Amino acid sequence: MTVAVDIWTDINCPFCYLGKRRFELALAEFAHRDEITVVHRSFELDPTIPAGTSGTVEEHIAHRYGIPVEQAQANERGIAAQAAEIDLPYQAGGRDYGNSFDMHRLLHLAAAHGKQDVMLDGLYAGNFADPTPVFGDRERLVAIAVSAGLDESEVRSTLDDPEAYADDVRRDEQQARELGVTGVPFFVFGGKYAVSGAQPTETFARALQLAWEERPVTIVGDQDAAACGPDGCAVPSPS
Amino acid sequence: MTVAVDIWTDINCPFCYLGKRRFELALAEFAHRDEITVVHRSFELDPTIPAGTSGTVEEHIAHRYGIPVEQAQANERGIAAQAAEIDLPYQAGGRDYGNSFDMHRLLHLAAAHGKQDVMLDGLYAGNFADPTPVFGDRERLVAIAVSAGLDESEVRSTLDDPEAYADDVRRDEQQARELGVTGVPFFVFGGKYAVSGAQPTETFARALQLAWEERPVTIVGDQDAAACGPDGCAVPSPS
């Protein structure tokens, strides 16, 4: 049976980037990995940032949380060191920040074409592994989406229509609120087992196993409804 | 949270065609329908039919199960009447039968592009709603796949390589055996609640509700792992 894994995430969130990789390391070792479906869900860390705004993330963080810029820079270097432990490229210093609503809308467009995961990888790589700013640069966003396999004209028309896939983003965020999610990444395995934050790979492995073991199945309804088998199609007699 | 619904199915199976529609009627009324992911799984009713074979289904059924052709024809008319009750077009008489392995391979190709559901609808319509035979006609199969939005050259190269997506078909069938599935359609909701056969719409509605209620979530792992929230990215102190 397919087990769905929901992952709430934001492009601005370095631990989402790291958490995705650690989850994938667990998934790669999981015996039933072909039965796992991953759905990325939208969560904006700061929806109040005006669209088109961009800037160096360390200064933004220092200003917003009232810490010295040096401390924000040290935090970035600390995250880069954690990323290096799992062979994840991370540019410590210089990445920008911004409003991620349009990116989340494109992730829902990508989902409709079965390309959500590769699109998210492209956005993360654009933000964390590449020194070129990714926020507030529409053409960069289009290029990332096209690299992920999306149709360029569909990407442009989605960006041109601010309501395209906007309800999908809002629904994800509403559900996160209902779940009490206050930070990301946030993972839910099989609708039942939650993992909060960029936990160690072993934690993801445990959650995969727990969700997988949530069996055997319970039969709902009649056992003799109309069905086809090796002996033909049995039509039950009318009751 | 996303609830996955796995549906084992065969193109040769009229009750799979009807069951899909009844399930969809239940889904359309389900309050959390946007949180449901459907995965179609492969099940060949008769994998021993040589590829390329085709013929009128009533004669095949009559011969195989030792019943008069007239009875097989009456069965088809009975299924057509059930289809009419849910506004599903059904050609009673004249549809063909055949080996569905290549169709299942193409359904897995379609899944990789997020087009599995529309591809399955195209195959069902081709087999049950259209008098033109669909088995043993490669160009018809290509046309259905292209109408579903697949890339023609990818469809042709998949058909040319008999091992392309073949393991995916076999894995689905192996899992059906492990579940004890002997007939299709067979539905599993949230990995836990099974519905066998083309049951009434209300049964599907009940299974959706049962799978959805399989909450709340259980937290796995630390509560204070590295995460980003509205107050910044918290890096837990090393333990």
Keyphrases for this structure?
9 strands, alpha+beta, homodimer, DsbA family oxidoreductase (chains A, B), 239 residues, 14% strand, two-stranded antiparallel ribbon, Glutaredoxin
Describe the structure.
Chains A, B: GO terms for molecular function: oxidoreductase activity. Chains A, B: Residues 5-209 form the DSBA-like thioredoxin domain. Chains A, B: This is DsbA family oxidoreductase. 2 copies of one chain form a homodimer. In chain A, a hairpin with a 2-residue loop joins strand 8 (227-229) and strand 9 (232-234). Chain A contains 9 helices and 9 strands. The mean pLDDT of chain A is 91. In chain A, the strands form 3 sheets. A 4-stranded mixed beta sheet of chain A has the order 2-1-5-6, sandwiched between helices. Chain A is an alpha+beta fold. In chain A, 46% of the residues are buried. In chain A, helix 5 crosses helix 6. Chain A has a single domain (3-233), classed as Glutaredoxin (3-Layer(aba) Sandwich), CATH 3.40.30.10. The first copy, chain A, is globular and about 70 Å long. Chains A and B meet through strand 1, helix 1, helix 2, helix 3 and helix 8 of A and strand 1, helix 1, helix 2, helix 3 and helix 8 of B. Strand 6 of chain A pairs parallel with strand 7 of chain B.
Rounded to an integer in angstroms, the radius of gyration calculated over CA atoms of chain A is 21 Å
**Number of H- or I-type helical stretches of chain A:** 9
Structure classification of chain A:
alpha+beta
Main sheet: strand order of chain A: 2-1-5-6
Number of domains of chain A: 1
| Multimer state | homodimer
Largest interface: A-B, 80 and 80 residues
The CATH architecture of chain A would be 3-Layer(aba) Sandwich
Question: What is the top-level CATH class of chain A?
Answer: Alpha Beta
Low-confidence stretches of chain A: none
In sequence order, what are the helices and strands of chain A, one letter per element?
EHEEHHEHHHHHEEHEEE
Ends apart, CA distance between termini of chain A? 32 Å
DSSP E strands of chain A, number? 9
**CATH third-level topology of chain A:** Glutaredoxin
Proportion of strand residues of chain A? 5-15%
Kindly state the mean pLDDT of chain A as a whole number?
91
Question: In one word, what is the shape of chain A?
Answer: globular
Pfam family, one (chains A, B): DSBA
GO molecular function, one term (chains A, B): oxidoreductase activity
Protein name (chains A, B): DsbA family oxidoreductase
Organism (chains A, B): Gordonia aquimaris
